[in-house]
Amino acid sequence: MALQNIGAANSDDAFYRYKMPRMITKIEGRGNGIKTNVVNMVDIAKALARPASYTTKYFGCELGAQSKFDEKTGTSHVNGAHDTAKLAGLLENFIKKYVQCYGCGNPETEIIITKNQMIQLKCAACGFVSDVDMRDKLTTFIIKNPPEVKKGSKDKKAMRRAEKERLKEGELADEEQKKVKKEVKKKGSSSSKDGTKSTSSKKKASGSDEDRTSPTHSQIDEKEEALDEDDDDDVQWQTDTSLDAARQRIQEQLSAVTADMVMLSTDEPEKKKEASNGNDGSQNGNSMHCRTLVGEVKANLKKGVGANELLSQLAAHPVPAQEKMSALVEALFEGTEKGFAKEADKKKNYFSVAVADEGSQPLLLHAIEEFSCKSTSNALKEVALVLKALYDADVLEEEHIVQWYQKGLKGDNKNSRIWKNAQPFIDWLQNAESETEEE
Q: What does pTM read for this prediction?
């Protein structure tokens, strides 16, 4: 099947990754019953991520002819005999209005119908929300026949949010009833405060680990220089044959032997360190490369570089994808002491572009795990809030979050505090899932 780039502006780009099949039409019938059959309309609609009924109806609206798409057989008919080139031009107009993002031109958009019966296009690449011109005839058909919502996305979230509101209302009613028992409530609050203080003091006592500095070679080098200076000072250019001179030479020889023994003892750890440095050279190189990546991302953020441009520059580096994602998370969150969830919500556009490719969500979760587990980071306390903020922003999906959590509990660092802190959000996800299934 011959393919072409989506969008006329991208027709000359040989490396454009969004493609669709070329249109194939067939004239059927005679006289007043003549029709144009778009043979591969289903394949074209799949490539555009739009229902085939939308494109068929658009042809009818623009040509002023009756059009019909049969869901059972998958056939698309437009009354009258129409050229393939003419229909392809109309399809191009449909792509510009209802498929491509008005901001970046990317065709990876989703149709959203607002509460005010307005149609918008939400771009998965840059996060831009485009407003569709409601004067077009097809908009009434789209509102009457909205696109199907993907499983596990907005319906579940809407039900969970409504349930959360109901719980809040119940809590308010309970508080009004508890006003009568103020004394009991005060005692309970005072005891709970004492408990939280004791637990916080325990956390502070157990969670402070100072960074240890690794030993350097400077001390060994200083010892070697001191020994070399001693050897140079002990050299004598005249031989004395007296008894005292002989005894002095014997002592010097003994001191020289002990000096050689000291040199041998210092050479052994030197060799061991060189061998260990040879084994850890790649790790040090990777850490240095990661630091340079973090610095470059921070510099671009200060310049006000957009999400798409920033991620394209980051993708050009010849390093593993996990290191790129870790550098992005560290650069976006570095310097944040409190309010990591709010910071994640502010910078959700960068994360949405970063997980645009399939399989990138586990990389983002692992990067958040690495950053949160650092001793200098306070994000460990707010990891559940960060996950919820990215989940509400449609950056992370429930399936990937649960898989990451279950894999972490079985991994080497299963005793890490991150799993304990993330557990309330995981429980909320699973409980909400079970309750929606029961309903």
A: 0.38
Task: Work out the burial of residue 60: count CB atoms within 10 Å of its CB; fewer than 13 is exposed, 13-18 middle, 19 or more buried.
Answer: buried
Chain centroid to CA 152: 19
Structure tokens at 57: 């109806």
Residues of the chain with CATH 3.30.30.170: 3-107
Instruction: Pick one of 3.40.710.10, 3.30.300.30, 3.30.30.170, 3.30.460.10 as the CATH number of 3-107.
Output: 3.30.30.170
Q: Which residues contact 29 (CB under 8 A, 6 or more apart)?
A: 35
Return the exposure string of 334-365: e unless at least 16 CB atoms fall within 10 Å of the residue's CB, then b. eeeeeebbebbbebbbbbbbbbbeeebbbbbb
d(CA 300, CA 306): 9
Architecture of domain 286-438: Alpha Horseshoe (1.25)
Q: Are 126 and 353 in contact (CB under 8 A)?
A: yes
Cβ–Cβ < 8 Å for 26, 37: yes
How far is Cα 67 from Cα 285, in angstroms, rounded to an integer? 63
pLDDT in tens, the chain (439 residues): 688 999 888 888 888 889 999 999 999 998 888 999 999 999 999 999 999 999 999 999 999 999 999 988 999 999 999 999 999 999 999 999 999 999 888 999 999 999 899 999 999 888 899 999 999 999 999 999 998 865 544 556 666 676 677 677 777 777 777 776 777 666 666 655 555 555 444 444 444 444 444 444 445 455 555 545 444 444 545 566 666 776 677 666 655 545 455 444 444 444 444 444 544 544 555 556 667 777 888 887 877 778 788 777 777 777 788 888 888 888 888 777 677 778 888 888 888 888 887 788 888 888 888 887 775 556 777 888 888 888 888 888 888 888 888 888 887 776 778 888 888 888 888 776 555 555 4
Cα–Cα nearest to 239, from 229, 249, 251, 252: 249
How buried is 372 (Cβ within 10 angstroms: 0-12 exposed, 13-18 middle, 19+ buried)? buried
Domain with CATH 1.25.40.180 in the chain: 286-438
